[in-house]
C-alpha cells in the first residue's frame, strides 16, 4: 500500500521539521536563556526539552508491545530543573528523538492498523503517531515563543518574517 508508506514518510518528515525548528531556537539562545523561567510556575526551554524527551522515551520504547506510559517514567520530575547545562539538554533531546526514529523507521504498512496502548487507552499505530505529532509541536511552539521573547530584536525568523509575506509569495509563485 503506497498510501501507508507515504503516511509514514510524511510523519517522519513532520517530526524532523519540528525537531529542526526547536534546534534553530536553541541556537539563538544563550546557555542562561535555556534555563530562564518567567515565574516559578512556568517552564524553561530546558524543562520543556526534559518533558518532550521523557515522553518520547516512554511512548516509543517497545512501542508495539508495551503501554506507552512506562512505569519507570517520572513525568513530574520532567518539570523540575534536572538538566544543568546545554550539553546535557542536547544529549537528552537527542536521546528522545533517537528513540522515536528507532521505533518509527522499521514500521510497515501492516503496522498502521495494529493497536497500541497509551495509559491503557487503545490507539491504532497511526492514531498514536498523530497524537505525538500534535503533542511535540505544541511544546516546540512554546520553545519558540520563549526563544522569541528572550532573543528580542536579535530573533531570526525560521519561517516568513513579519512584513515579508508578499515577497515570499512572489518568490514561490515565480513573480
TrEMBL record:
The record's InterPro entries line, in alphabetical order, gives:
DinB/YfiT-like, DUF1572
Question: Which SUPFAM superfamilies does its entry note?
Answer: DinB/YfiT-like putative metalloenzymes (SSF109854)
The UniProt entry, under Pfam families, shows: DUF1572
From the Swiss-Prot or TrEMBL record, give the protein name: DUF1572 domain-containing protein
